[in-house]
Amino acid sequence: MLTRQQAVALEKASSGEFESLSQAAAARRDAHWGRTLTYSRKVFVPLTTMCRDDCGYCTFVQKPGTPGARIMTPDEVMAVVREGERLGCKEVLFSLGEKPERRYPEAREALARLGHRSMTDYLVEMCDRVLRESELLPHVNAGTLEDNEIARLKPVSVSMGMMLENVSRRLLQRGQAHFACPDKVPVQRLRTLERAGRHGVPFTTGILIGIGETWAERVDSLLAINDLHRRYGHVQEVIIQNFRAKPGTAMAGHPEPSLDDMVRTLVLARLLLDPEISLQAPPNLEARFAAYLDAGINDWGGISPVTVDHINPERAWPQIDALRRSTERCGYGLAERLAVYPRYLRRPERFLSAPLASRLAGIARTDGLALAQCV
Q1: How distant, in Å, are the alpha carbons of 2, 19, 156, 255, 273 from that of 223?
Q2: Three-state secondary-structure class, residue 218
Q3: CA 285 to mean position of chain CA atoms
Q4: pTM
Q5: Which of 15, 60, 61, 75 lies 20 to 30 Å from 101 when distance is taken between CA atoms?
Q6: Per-residue pLDDT reduced to its tens digit, 133-145
């Protein structure tokens, strides 16, 4: 694996040097993951669009008083889940704004009508209902979490996630991407990652590139993730996500990272991270996403036949058939995985509650991928 000095130098590697590094990244992927890329067939449930943070690039979040500000009802959630079940989905990705009840009385009132005092309380109830009333498995992306929240969510979710985004405190300054975002303080997000490790939660994290960070800050963010994984073994995948400018946001005019920048960052991640960590890049945020394969990715992430990408609604998911063809043209197969990676199924006593381990055993192949393949 790269040293920090080598990783920082990769930014300015010559074309010849980078070609060698790219080949090394692809070889490392092939050695550990083989020549099959994976994806998770999911439905996306935006449990609430309200959030106490004001990220400069976000259109998902809606303030009370705007038409899109809401908390989904249980019936609305289960309608999405049942449609996903009908179309062969295995995962329910719960994504929600962070702790809106701490900022907005409207959020507290909406939760009270649902019989709850916090979004975590409501999230636990809905994960439990998904498990009781469907065959789908919840994956929770609820942002920063306390110890007791992770402990309550683990029995009702097979995995959790939270993008680290970046460890730079500079991005919290006025005019930067994370100004006025209490939940984007790096130490708070790192604490959540560590708590998930202590609780043995299979965890998804990653970095968002192009939001004003330096290359060295990307390196340090990936190193922080890798250090926590070495201690706890719980980081199942790292997402490298490219910033996309959106009208109406503070960063609407901010330049987007180029394809070359994205590819270099993927090579960096593959050579810097423990090879057992899955490396993922979203195919709907780049038209020439097939270029990611040469950079060492092994996973396309969650893709839905039912719901849009609510974080990037203007970017449609590729059809699975088209994704398979693009992957095959590069010499790789495509397979469907579950919301938890195979190696965690081999250690259920550490990473899964007994009921979830039992359910997973019934829907997983011997290699840990989905028994019923939709490719």
Answers
A1: 10, 23, 30, 25, 7
A2: helix
A3: 14
A4: 0.95
A5: 75
A6: 999 999 999 999 9
